[in-house]
Amino acid sequence: SLGAASQEQDTSRDAAGLRSMSSVTIPPPACMLRPLEAPLRYLFGPGPSNVPPRVLAAGGRPIIGHLHPEMYEIMNDIKKGIQYAFQTENNMTISMSGSGHAAMECAVFNTVEPGESVLVAINGIWGERVAEIAERMGANVHRMVKTPGGYFTNKEIEQAMQKHKPVLFFLTHGESSAGLCHPIDGIGDICRKHDCLFLVDTVASLGAAPIFMDKQNIDILYTGSQKALNAPPGTAPISFNDRACHKMFNRKTKPVSYLFDMTHLSNYWGCDGKPARAYHHTGPVSGFFALRESLAILAERVKRYTSTFSVILQKKYTDLRLPSVTTIAIPKGYDWREMLAYIMKHHQMEMTGGLGPSIGMVMRIGLMGYNCEKSNADMALHALADALKNCRKSKA
Ligand SMILES: *Cc1c(COP(=O)(O)O)cnc(C)c1O
């Protein structure tokens, strides 16, 4: 009968269900059956920094759809917040769905075509990273190299530009591996004179050292969320001026990345003048909530632009100090790894060693945005003094 047939079907479906259950050969991992543990730490390294409760709360709000009109409003607010933070009127101002590296790749991928000449100033790790990114997409990369903490004169930059005729020149404003804040004035004008785009990385410096995108003739500027902006990692503001837009929207080849293609991203962020925004990718909704809140805090307050810490520390590693990340010479006779481990263990405080070319040369202490308080500087100094007292000192 019909009833019997359907019953038979049901049992066979059950059997199939059982079979698929019994085929789970990897048991649930024990760690997944324990609650999440994330300790409270003082994040006094070069990032991420501690996130203020207000920003955490914004990120913890119930999410909405990435294509809901309310989300577009929030994205429009973020755009205005970035324009303020960058001091720019550029319409082409968005946040990447990704960390600072996403902005680095977006800038290079969209404005450079394979075979074109790119000039990169390297005085720490970040220039080297951008040089590699540009090489990977087939650019003809020219490096200007200084030891970490060194800086480039405008004359040196202009000479290299005359020689290599780049379409793009990259400079790091806040070199967080070297603790240097590079002078910017005049370089944008040199780039214009030589028909070259000026790309500046302010991941470690935005909100800690002044930058004026429009006034300083910077063509492309980006930052990250998790340093002086004190938002969680995972979003990265970026802005392109008309010169940069002209170059990137008149290319012969498509950018190598679909995810970072500005023709799509400009539509997603409502910057392309089209009435409708189309689905391109799902933006990090919670990350955007938090980023909006951190930009709101920046807009509300006139931030202190100097770090108390840089002033207190005596051992100078460079003259153009980056306020947000202070590099200190490793005290003679001490093992920096042991000191950092001691400070983490006994003070729940992150400080870091060098990065890239500055490894073994310095320790790095970052007091960024919300963390930049005298009480925190005192606490960091106390932890350092304690480490000096209790870590091994070699006789040599
Ligand atoms: C941290 C940092 C980056 C990279 O940012 P991520 O968010 O880690 O990808 C780039 N440039 C500078 C100067 C930085 O300090």
TrEMBL record:
**Any one of the GO CC terms:** peroxisome
Residues bearing PTM N6-(pyridoxal phosphate)lysine? 227
InterPro entries per record:
Aminotrans_V_dom (IPR000192), Aminotrans_V_PyrdxlP_BS (IPR020578), PyrdxlP-dep_Trfase (IPR015424), PyrdxlP-dep_Trfase_major (IPR015421), PyrdxlP-dep_Trfase_small (IPR015422), SP_NH2Trfase/AEP_transaminase (IPR024169)
Residues forming the Aminotransferase class V domain are 42-300
The UniProt GO MF terms for this protein read:
alanine-glyoxylate transaminase activity; L-serine-pyruvate transaminase activity
The record's top EC class is transferase
**Binding-site list for substrate:** 364
Q: What is the lineage of its organism?
A: Eukaryota, Metazoa, Chordata, Craniata, Vertebrata
Q: Which organism is it from?
A: Amphiprion ocellaris
According to UniProt, the name of this protein is Alanine--glyoxylate aminotransferase
Gene3D superfamilies referenced in this protein's UniProt entry, alphabetically: Aspartate Aminotransferase, domain 1, Type I PLP-dependent aspartate aminotransferase-like (Major domain)
SUPFAM superfamilies referenced in this protein's UniProt entry, alphabetically: PLP-dependent transferases
- Give the multimer and partner information: Homodimer.
Q: Which prosthetic group or cofactor does it need?
A: pyridoxal 5'-phosphate
* Location of the region described as Disordered in the Swiss-Prot/TrEMBL record: 1-21
Which key words are in the record? Aminotransferase, Pyridoxal phosphate, Transferase
Q: Does the keyword Transferase apply?
A: yes
Gene Ontology biological process terms from the UniProt entry: glycine biosynthetic process, by transamination of glyoxylate
Q: Which reaction does it catalyse?
A: glyoxylate + L-alanine = glycine + pyruvate; L-serine + pyruvate = 3-hydroxypyruvate + L-alanine
EC number(s) per entry:
2.6.1.44, 2.6.1.51
Q: Which family does it belong to?
A: Belongs to the class-V pyridoxal-phosphate-dependent aminotransferase family.
